[in-house]
Amino acid sequence: MKTVFRVIVVLLLLAGLAYFFLQGEAPPPPQVPPLQPQAQLPAAPEPIAPAAPPIQFPVEQIVPEQMEEALAKEGEAAPDADALASQALAAAAPGGLIADVMLLPDLVRRIVVTVDNLPREKVARKLAPVRAARGPFIVAGEEGARRIGDDNVTRYHPFVKFAEAVDLSTLVKGYVRLYPFFQQAYRDL
What we know:
- By secondary structure, the protein is mainly alpha-helical.
- About 50% of the residues lie in helices and about 0% in strands.
- α2 (about 65-70) packs across α7, α3 (about 80-90) runs antiparallel to α7 (about 170-185) and α5 crosses α7.
- The N and C termini lie far apart (about 110 Å).
């Protein structure tokens, strides 16, 4: 057994020596040329603000022909913007529905103020052009499982009826005709 052990030790020594001498010297690592200073890149140009999107339905192109119709002519009394707006709404939703839904006094100003308030956190409810729904908001169900009550249908019925009855084409024509009044009300804010 001693002989076998000696043979194994001698073979391991010979293998180690053979590896060491046959390996030789490792080639030197490749020389990396020194980094050349890079030319300074020009500063990034100032970002160009994106162009405003084109107005999809420019009213200015429509209004000049119809402005004379809506605005007072020389020597006549100035037209009542609210009366014209009420007439335009009545033409768009016949059947007297506007009285149930809209607050007609100071209507043009109310519409302009409401649209102007839309991007704000709060909207002035007392200046809204639309009446408040009548009666309390009704909920159903028990605590933790509340839902909108079915009886709210009657609360919102006049608004739904008005929305269904409005002829959008007539409404848009009325808006275009009254556009100068809306612009003036906006300037007056």
